[in-house]
Amino acid sequence: MENPIHLLLMAVVQDQDFESATRAIQSIGATVTYLSSAGGFLGRRNVTLLIGLPIEKEKDALEALQNSCRQRIEYLTLPLEGSPMPMPAPVPVTVGGATVFALPVERFEQI
What we know:
About 20% of the residues lie in helices and about 50% in strands. It is α+β, with helices and mostly antiparallel strands. The protein has one domain: 2-Layer Sandwich (Alpha-Beta Plaits), CATH 3.30.70.120. The strands form 2 sheets. Strands 2-3-1-6 form a 4-stranded antiparallel beta sheet, with helices on one face. The chain has a two-stranded antiparallel ribbon with strand order 4-5. The chain starts with 5 loop residues before the first strand and ends in a 6-residue tail after the last strand.
């Protein structure tokens, strides 16, 4: 009997969404492992979730992540160009949500 086709979803989420995202993924019966990570642009703490699941649960997993990882507006303080005094100008930046990569798994075993 052949194994069903599986996927590995790699989801990068903000640290504050970690618990709700993990609960949401576990509620659909998928296994999840996490790695601490940091964002390159803002340098904020992130978590990379490694989610193994049958391919037919991909849509459920994406919906669970979408519902548990929300986007936020944060403000970065940048100096004004040409200003004699370094007065910061807050700039709105959208952060959060989830960045998800779906990788096919050729072989999957639970030992």
